[in-house]
Design goal:
Structural class: alpha+beta
Strand order of the largest sheet: 1-6-3-4
Number of strands: 6
Strand content: 5-15%
Order of helices and strands: HHHHHHHEEEEEE
Oligomer: single chain
Number of helices: 7
Largest sheet: 4 strands, antiparallel
């Protein structure tokens, strides 16, 4: 963000992810028909605004928009296919999330709010999480050793602390 020289670059990207998310969700409330394509359009507008305001570089904004679409698509797919709750997708109790993050996730993931089927991206792409990317709240599992990484807010995915692998998938309930 503008005062990024005072922040860890990883925190700056996490903050940019949250800001983009907030901007997209803020605008979906006024839409008559809430669809996946509309959400993607709103994410693109939020990305453009972050670039225009010089909050982050164009390259980082593109990546974060892709990460945001991936996370929301994964949540929507899981909730629509399984009929389970948001806490199951996160892999931990929702009480551990900040209230505003939980509210925004519930707004976007609520099956009555969006046509979840239209929100899906390519399923294979949506399920791959790699070190160096930014992810939203939830639990990721190392594809190599099964180590769990818990994210209570958006953050950069580190290499696996146990085996140093770089590929993960989202844990969907126990």
């Amino acid at each position: 963000m503008k005062d990024s020289q005072h922040h860890d670059p990883i925190d700056v990207l996490g903050e940019a992810y949250e800001k983009m998310y907030e901007r997209a969700i803020e605008n979906i409330h006024t839409a008559e028909e809430k669809t996946g394509p509309l959400l993607h359009k709103l994410i693109e507008e939020a990305k453009d605004k972050a670039i225009d305001l010089k909050e982050i570089s164009e390259e980082d904004a593109e990546k974060i928009a892709d990460y945001l679409k991936r996370d929301l698509s994964d949540a929507a797919h899981y909730l629509s296919e399984s009929g389970r709750e948001l806490k199951d997708w996160l892999g931990f109790e929702t009480a551990l999330l900040e209230a505003d993050t939980l509210y925004l996730l519930q707004e976007i993931a609520d099956p009555t709010t969006l046509e979840l089927q239209k929100l899906k991206l390519d399923a294979q792409r949506a399920s791959v999480y790699r070190s160096g990317e930014i992810t939203g709240p939830g639990t990721l599992v190392c594809d190599q050793c099964g180590e769990k990484l818990h994210f209570h807010k958006p953050g950069k995915i580190p290499p696996c602390p146990k085996c140093h692998a770089s590929s993960f998938h989202r844990q969907h309930g126990e």
